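Sequence, please.
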């Protein structure tokens, strides 16, 4: 039995897509040792609701008591190379230009919400760098580190999530995560100075394909992701 805590929301009444996808990813890694995981969300993840894990043919599913599938994870593969690491100057400029400071469809989002306090939300803010990417600096708060200071898999996936949404630009069309393929190369640590980057690769109707990555100052890659975002009617998530 597992629940998605109210702290880990995306839209106000449902789970943060990256965090929930990372919960699925962590289960697959623990059960099958997959290096790259593809997680697909089938419906808005409910908060504070008892859910269960189901396994079949190497696929793990998160399901409700009534049998509805919230999401599923399986071994995955990347399509392209990760976005290039931003410089310190690009990251700083991206933070200053973060569109969410002015307009935000989900301002209490666990990852990128401006209404969250330090240690409650990740407060990871990425804005345009002028070359098609978004970027921003980020130092994980001590509240998110484990006994050794390392962030867990769901929190790391959450950090890899929203920069892709900002690359698609939440302020033009609200989107939610549909699918995320991710790899944690090395767990970020609380207090570690990081740089986040996102890139919009393609739009196909209501679908947006993006890529994200987390780097440290010497351009060491800590984690990367590719995502599919789905444009939504915001009134359904308010």
């Amino acid at each position: 039995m597992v629940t998605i805590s109210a702290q880990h929301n995306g839209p106000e009444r449902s789970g943060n897509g990256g965090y929930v996808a990372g919960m699925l990813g962590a289960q697959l890694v623990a059960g099958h040792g997959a290096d790259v995981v593809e997680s697909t969300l089938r419906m808005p993840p409910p908060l504070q609701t008892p859910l269960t894990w189901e396994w079949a043919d190497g696929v793990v599913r998160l399901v409700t008591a009534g049998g509805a599938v919230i999401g599923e994870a399986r071994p995955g593969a990347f399509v392209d190379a990760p976005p290039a690491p931003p410089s310190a100057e690009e990251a700083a400029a991206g933070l200053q230009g973060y569109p969410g400071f002015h307009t935000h469809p989900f301002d209490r989002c666990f990852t990128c919400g401006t209404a969250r306090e330090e240690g409650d939300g990740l407060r990871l803010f990425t804005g345009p760098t002028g070359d098609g990417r978004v970027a921003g600096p980020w130092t994980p708060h001590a509240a998110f580190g484990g006994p050794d200071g390392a962030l867990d898999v769901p929190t790391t996936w959450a950090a890899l999530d929203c920069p892709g949404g900002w690359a698609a630009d939440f302020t033009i069309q609200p989107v939610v995560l549909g699918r995320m393929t991710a790899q944690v190369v090395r767990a970020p640590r609380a207090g570690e100075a990081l740089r986040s980057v996102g890139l919009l690769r393609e739009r196909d109707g209501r679908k947006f394909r993006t890529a994200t990555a987390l780097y440290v100052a010497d351009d060491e890659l800590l984690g990367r992701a590719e995502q599919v975002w789905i444009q939504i009617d915001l009134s359904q998530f308010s």
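DSSP finds three helices and ten strands in the chain.
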